[in-house]
């Protein structure tokens, strides 16, 4: 019985370590003024995507533009 408990505990620890090894994408948090958010929300809603996805898409396009300029 003790062996099963010990094995179970080791399995749980292994599962937890595997979960922590899978790193999430880094996130940056920042405050968006309400007026700006409302504009972004309306545009994102018209495209049927989240504000987060809309902002990330804009940032990705801008980064690509800047990257192309520096070449």
Please give the structural blueprint.
Elements: H1 2-21, H2 34-46, H3 51-69
Number of helices: 3
Mean pLDDT: 81
Q: Based on CA inertia axes, which overall geometry fits?
A: extended
Percentage of β-strand residues: under 5%
* Unreliable parts: none
Q: Can you write the helix and strand succession as a string?
A: HHH
Distance between the termini: 66 Å
Characterization of this structure:
With 71 residues, this protein is mostly helical. The chain contains three helices and no strands. Helix 2 packs across helix 3 (51-69). The longest helix is centred in the first third of the chain and has 20 residues, at 2-21.
Task: Explain briefly what this protein structure is.
The chain has 71 residues and is an all-alpha fold. It has helices at residues 2-21, 34-46, 51-69.
Provide keyphrases for this structure:
73% helix; single chain; mainly alpha; 3 helices; extended; 71 residues
């Amino acid at each position: 019985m003790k062996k099963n408990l010990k094995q179970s505990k080791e399995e749980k620890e292994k599962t937890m370590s595997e979960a922590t090894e899978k790193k999430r994408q880094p996130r940056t948090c920042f405050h968006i003024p309400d007026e700006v958010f409302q504009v972004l929300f309306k545009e994102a809603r018209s495209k049927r995507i989240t504000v987060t996805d809309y902002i990330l898409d804009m940032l990705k396009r801008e980064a690509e533009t800047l990257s192309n300029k520096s070449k």
